[in-house]
Amino acid sequence: MTGFSVSGRGAGSAASGTGNAVAPAQPQAGAATLAVENLRIGVAARGGLLEAVKGVSLSVGPGEMVGLVGESGSGKTLTAMAVCGLLPPRAHVISGSIRIRGTDALGLNRRGWEQLRAGQVGVVFQDAMSALNPRLTIGSQVMEALPAELRHNRAEAKEHAASLLADAGIPHPRERLGSYPHELSGGLLQRVVIAMAVARRPALLVADEPTTALDVSVQGQILDMLDRLRSELNLAVLLITHDLRLVQHRAARTVVVYAGEVVEEGPTAELAERPHHRYTVALLEAIPGRAPRRAPLASIQGDPPRLDQRFEGCPFAPRCSAASDPCSTAPPLWQVVATARYRCWHPQTEPLGGIVPRPQVASPRPPTGDHSSASPPPVAELVDLRKTYRIGGGLTHLRAGVTAAAGVDLDVPADAFTGLLGESGCGKTTIGRLLAGVEHPDSGAVRFEGAEIWSLSRTARAAWRRQVQLVFQDPYSALDRRMTVEAIVAEPLVIQGGLRRREIRDRARQLLSDVGLTHQHWGRRPTELSGGQLQRVSLARALTLAPKLLVADEPLSSLDVSLQAKILDLLVELQRRYHFATVLISHDIEVVRYLCDRVSVMYMGRIVETGDASLILAAPRHPYTAGLLASLPGSDGNGRLRGEPPSAMSPPSGCAFRTRCPYAQERCAVEIPQLWDVGDGGRAACHFPLVTAPLAGGARETT
Amino acid sequence: MAGEWAGLVGAGIVVVACVLAIFAAQIARQSPDSQHLLQVLQGPSAQHPLGTDEVGRDVLSRVIYGSRIPLGVGSAAVVLGGAIGVALGMISGYVGRWVDAVLGRVADIQLSIPAIILAVAFLALRGGGLLSLVVVLAATGWPTYYRVVRSHVISARTGNFVTALSVIAASHWRIMFRHLIPDALPLVVVTATLDFSRAVLLEAGLSYLGLGVQPPTPDWGLMVASGQTQLAGAWWISVFPGIALVLLLLGINLFGDWLADRVGRRTRSGVLQ
Ligand SMILES: Nc1ncnc2c1ncn2[C@@H]1O[C@H](COP(=O)(O)OP(=O)(O)OP(=O)(O)O)[C@@H](O)[C@H]1O
Ligand code: SF4
Ligand code: SF4
Ligand SMILES: [Mg+2]
Questions:
Q1: CA A129, A135, A140: angle at the middle one, nearest 5?
Q2: How far, in Å, CA of A72 to CA of B35, rounded?
Q3: pTM of the model
Q4: N or C: which terminus of chain A has fewer CB atoms within 10 Å of its end residue's CB?
């Protein structure tokens, strides 16, 4: 029994539970644009019908943004699909109601739904590319989305389409109408999709993970735009995400779901500061930005529940650190606190504080000793490394070049974490691949323990090969899905040879238990493991040969926050035990701040700032780093990066960042800034580095 | 559910055809070649369930024996064409650069010439015969395998699969034969069933035109052709081998669809994980 009725309204603070029939304390329940009540959705499976959504209720009023937050598999997407009438064939609504502007949407047939979607409901999904037809121009697709009366006159329709794109923050909208989807970046595509979704002035916009595939800087911009559309069009927005940080400062209310049930809901600010339900608490605690460096993060044990699991009591009980009597035997009752409600037997009582500590305002730093003189020689170095990719093909075609590395110098200290930060396309992955020797540089040197790797002798090269290992963002694509986990981890040793079968097996099993996989996983294949477990397998495999350098390319970004936390904890522990240097390639500043000793920030193929991670990420000297920091989800957005990086095929003259830099001056357009010592062992490539953090509107240093 | 049944029926037909071909000598009650000039052009009867032809041979026996050529030639062509296509596709996708460009062009050219024209030209020059047939069918069939394997290998390369193996110092040999080929095998098998039905049909067509196997070898295409002039009076001579051919093609295609669906589902559900 998980339902509740709408009658009555909880008042006062901390009213004790009065059975399961406690009202959702929703301020605008009467005039709601979207009202979902007690929605239950079943998914047909081999063993019968499995209930994936178990009584979700929520409402979104006009001009209101509501966040729906939960881990992967919690039923967020199914709820969103049901609200848009787009449930997949095997799923259907068992009971409950969905009312959109008073219309009972569940009573509609297919035509009715189509009309409702055409007039009232806009939908935005995670993958913008798949929402657009690759063979049609942006213009024709946006015009198609316009209401019928605006489509009669082609010239007028074009005007409207262009102004829609302009509203969605797309630069040069008129030229864009003739572009094809593959010519646009992911961020621009998502803007196009949003422009199409609001083209018919819907009353409700459902956005399911609209920014998950995007860079932080672009994420912030897209969410800002959604927020602006919400207030301008008086739009009701349901924003679905696994990341609580995204809804902060934006959604008025947030609903947290777990295992298909609402466990807590309330005003977002309050929820983030005073969460009650232990699951909400755990979600917040898993965010690396909150924690001191390398302090253990994960407070959620185990995996999210499977669909076929049944719960007598609280579904979170098997993973909850506060679980005790009667958590696993009796379902917790709804508790109402002012306009929030939650259901937990032993709620958190202390406030948690804000989600993200704002970057501190830097006072001019007192000079400290030169770090570099004391530090041991680096395990790996890149020296003036250049790499240009030829694109555009054919034998006769004129070829264009994209410069992925334009003279990169990088030192990787032994036995430490080095972060490599930057937006999508800046060349992070190329640097990682060059470091790992799977890509050949055009010029420059890649040194490992002082020796240039491309001029090693055959035997030295074989020995070096084992010292540097790679971990990928998407482990599934990198692992052989026909092999068992044990065989995958053993393979490097099998190739190396010289060990007995038993020794190899024991070593593989040892590593698998080191990464937290027990014997029940050893015989499984990649298809039978979750994303988090797969990433553990690829870590184990990378460590089989006891490498001195691990290059991890976005190892966390395909994972939910709670899984990220666990892999981060694991990385810290493995590094402590096996002492290897790690280069962590990431677009997530908080992960880098949490984990890394040193950081290098890249922009368009160059390192623009490098030095001690905690110093730089607290008080950046380069305007780009400062902009990245201001773009963090959960920050208020002052000083956020504008636009997107320019095309890498025709980089701006002088400083590549000048087209987006708020401090650009004439000199920036003519002279490429080189990395120079800006104090504290930090180096920045800027003619006019910041003295104080720009968030404080700081003064400028002139040179 | 309907798909499962269709797959089963298709597999059943193919199995029956194979059994007929292998055990023709045990199953057929009469020799396919013995002529009975007193019993020419007889309609279906108890003694000759499918009738007799213009020289008095038992049509049933000839239909049973006649399965040997399409199945045998088809399988040989699939094995040969598949081996060539898989090997070239692997090399093309793995090595890339100019090797890929050259092989790709060759495959394009091969595909742009209609198979039947190529086959007619080749057989007219070299003469019919089993070996020529197999060569022609394999030569027109390999580009499909080539494309499937090449694109699979390329996606494995861009998707980090190959990189992940090369950082643990796996040899090219190991990467290709221990990982890429087994990984592509389900797709190759699906391609092979489609190619098999193409080969069977083309073999029948060529023999029908008189370019394939020569009389008096029992062969469905040949039988359809030889009975054609008698169609008004003795329809059974052409119609029964025709029905056998259609049934076999149907069986292969039903089974192939079912297989493609399973393989597709497996890879898709894999991707979803
Ligand atoms: N078409 C379907 N067939 C079978 N199971 C499904 C289907 N769609 C969803 N499910 C299952 O229903 C559960 C909830 O799915 P849903 O996608 O709504 O969760 P989610 O929280 O949005 O996950 P994610 O963040 O990964 O998208 C999952 O366990 C999922 O496997
Ligand atoms: S009810 Fe019990 S198990 Fe569930 S979240 Fe609260 S304390 Fe944890
Ligand atoms: S060099 Fe000029 S344009 Fe570049 S970051 Fe510094 S101030 Fe901005
Ligand atoms: Mg989802």
A1: 90
A2: 74
A3: 0.77
A4: N
Q: Does B235 touch chain A (CB under 8 A)?
A: no
Question: Shortest CB distance from A545 goes to which of B160, B168, B183?
Answer: B168
Q: Reply yes or no on whether the pLDDT at A391 is more than 80.
A: no
3-class state of residue A342 by DSSP: strand
Quote ipTM for the complex.
0.74
* HSE (side-chain half, CA atoms, 13 Å) at A532: 22
Q: Select from A103, A99, A102, A199 the least CA-distant residue to A143.
A: A199
- Reduced 3-state DSSP string for A527-566: HHCCHHHHHHHHHHHHHCCCCCEEEEECCCCCCCHHHHHH
Q: Which atom of ligand 3 is nearest to the CA of A661?
A: 8
Partner residues linked to A343 by β-bridges: A334
Band of pLDDT at residue A27, cut at 50, 70 and 90: very low
- With the CA atoms of A27, A31, A34 and A37 taken in that order, what torsion angle do they form, in degrees rounded to the nearest 10? 70
A492: chain B residues, CB-CB within 8 Å: 168-169
Euclidean distance between CA atoms A189 and A222, whole angstroms: 11
Which residue, chain included where needed, has tokens 């004439």? A666
Name all contacts of A392-399 with Cβ < 8 Å and 24+ positions apart. Answer: A395/B101
Q: What is the DSSP letter of A448?
A: E
Cα A547 to the chain's mean position, in Å? 28
| A contacts of B183 (beta carbons < 8 Å) | 480-482
A211/A218 Cα distance (integer angstroms)? 8
Cα angle for residues A606, A611, A616 (degrees, 5° grid)? 100
CA torsion, ordered A153, A155, A159, A162, to nearest 10 deg: 110
Asked whether residue B248 is domain-assigned, the answer is yes
* Residue percentage of chain A with pLDDT more than 70: 88
Collapsed DSSP state (helix, strand, coil) of residue A640? coil
CB A637 within 8 A of CB A644: no
CA distance A492 to A522: 16
CA atoms within 13 A on the CB side of A641: 29
Domain that holds residue B239: 1-30+52-273
Which tokens go with A257? 């779901």
In a domain, B44, yes or no: no
Task: Tell me the per-residue pLDDT of B86-138, one tens digit each, with 9 for 90 and over.
Answer: 999 999 999 988 999 999 999 999 989 888 888 888 888 887 788 888 999 99
Q: Do B270 and A527 touch (CB under 8 A)?
A: yes
Beta strands A334-337 and A451-452 are unpaired
Provide the 10 A C-beta neighbour count for residue A114: 12
CA distances from A554 to A76, A245, B177 (A): 25, 19, 30
Please give the number of the atom of ligand 3 that sits closest to the Cα of A624.
Answer: 5
Q: What burial letters (b/e) apply to A461-497, b meaning 16+ CB within 10 Å?
A: eeebbbbbbbbbbbbbbbbbbebbbbbbbbbbbbbbe
Contact in structure between A236 and A36 (CB atoms under 8 Å)? no
Residue B193: CATH number of its domain: 1.10.3720.10
Rounded Cα distance, B35 and B132, in Å = 29
CA dihedral B250, B256, B257, B263 (to 10 degrees): 170
Q: Hey, which residues does A609 pair with through a beta bridge?
A: A601, A684
Counted domains in chain B: 1
Asked whether residue B211 is domain-assigned, the answer is: yes
Q: Quick check: B183 and A531 CB within 8 A?
A: no
- Other beta carbons within 10 angstroms of residue B119's beta carbon come to 25
Residue A299 amino acid letter? S
From CA A251, how far away is CA A229, in angstroms rounded?
13
A127 interfaces chain B, CB cutoff of 8 Å: no
Nearest atom in ligand 1 to A306's CA: 29
Tokens 């192939």 identify what position? Answer: B256
Confidence class of residue A25 from pLDDT cuts 50, 70 and 90? very low
The whole-number pLDDT of residue B139 equals 92
B45 located within any domain: no
Subunit contact B161:A466, Cβ cutoff 8 A: no
